[in-house]
């Protein structure tokens, strides 16, 4: 007497049939009575109600304040500021305005020939160290330096040695420069 026919339970309309198929208990024979599905439906319906009640009809900041802040804690709205033309004119000072000082960067002192030679010597030492450690870009730079005689004595043999070392590591500029040198 108290039992429900299986046909009545299975054919009862479902509120969310796509959710029922996705979130129903597979072990349950009568899926409508599945605890998992009922819990998920309750959560979904309560979230729908909550989101509509909070966000459904709110259109302005004033309405948000009315819905969220108790009346005794609200601050009265501020009166609008007077229009700009109604503001009083600033008082004219008797002293003329002082111009702001212009800040100029200090002049850069040109480097002396001695300083330039020292910088170039440090650069060559750095490139030589890096080239000896296997840096392809330093090997190429040192090869070009020897080829042109820039800061070092011009030496095509030394230039080729450094360019070949860079080319074996795949430096394309060194490969191109060696091809140019071989065509000459």
Overall pLDDT, averaged?
Answer: 74
Number of helices: 8
| Largest beta-sheet characterization | none
Briefly note the structural class of the backbone: mainly alpha
Rg over CA atoms, rounded to whole Å, is 43 Å
Strand content: under 5%
State the helical fraction. 40-55%
- From the spread of the alpha carbons, the general shape counts as flat
Unreliable runs? 4-13
How many beta-strand elements? 0
The termini sit apart by 110 Å
Q: What is the H/E order?
A: HHHHHHHH
Structural commentary:
Among the domains are: 9-66, no CATH class; 115-183. It contains eight helices and no strands. It has helices at residues 6-10, 17-23, 35-55, 61-68, 113-132, 136-148, 156-168, 172-183. The chain starts with 5 loop residues before the first helix and ends with a helix. The model is unreliable at 4-13 (pLDDT under 50).
């Amino acid at each position: 007497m108290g039992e429900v026919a299986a046909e009545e339970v299975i054919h009862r309309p479902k509120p969310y049939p796509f959710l029922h198929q996705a979130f129903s208990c597979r072990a349950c024979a009568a899926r409508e009575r599945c605890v998992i599905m009922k819990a998920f439906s309750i959560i979904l319906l309560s979230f729908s109600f909550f989101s509509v009640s909070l966000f459904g009809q709110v259109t302005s900041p004033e309405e948000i304040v009315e819905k969220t802040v108790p009346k005794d804690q609200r601050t009265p709205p501020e009166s609008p500021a007077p229009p700009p033309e109604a503001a009083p004119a600033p008082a004219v000072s008797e002293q003329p305005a002082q111009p702001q000082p212009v800040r100029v960067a200090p002049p850069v002192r040109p480097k002396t020939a001695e300083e330039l030679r020292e910088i170039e010597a440090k650069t060559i030492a750095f490139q030589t160290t890096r080239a000896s450690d296997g840096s392809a870009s330093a090997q190429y730079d040192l090869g070009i330096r020897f080829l042109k005689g820039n800061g070092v004595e011009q030496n095509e043999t030394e230039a080729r040695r450094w360019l070949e070392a860079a080319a074996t590591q795949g430096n394309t500029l060194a490969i191109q420069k060696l091809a140019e040198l071989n065509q000459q």
